[in-house]
Amino acid sequence: MTGPSESEASSGDSHGAPLGTPLRLLHLEDSPIDAALIAEHLARSGLSCDIHLVASRDDYAAALAAGGFDAIIADYVVPAFDGLAALDMARDGAPGIPFIFVSGTLGEEAAVDAVRRGATDYVVKQRLARLAIVLRRAMAEALAGQRAAQASLRESEARLRLALDAGRLGAWELDLRSDRLNASPTCRADFGQPPDTPLTEADLRAAVHPEDRERMQATMARAIAQGEDCDDEYRVVRPSGEVRWVQLRSRPSYAPDGTALGMAGVSLDVTERKLAEERLVLLMREVNHRAKNALAVVQSVLRLTRTADLPGYVRAVEGRVAALARVQTLLAEDAWTGADLRVLLEGELAPFLGDGRRAVMAGPAVVLPARVTQPLTMAMHELATNAVKYGALSEAAGCVTVTWSVEKAQDDTAQLRLRWAETGGPAVPGRPTRRGFGGRVLDGTVRMQLGGTVSLTWAPSGLVCDLDLPLAGWAGDEPAMRPV
Question: What gap in Å lies between CA 443 and CA 186, rounded to an integer?
Answer without folding.
Answer: 58
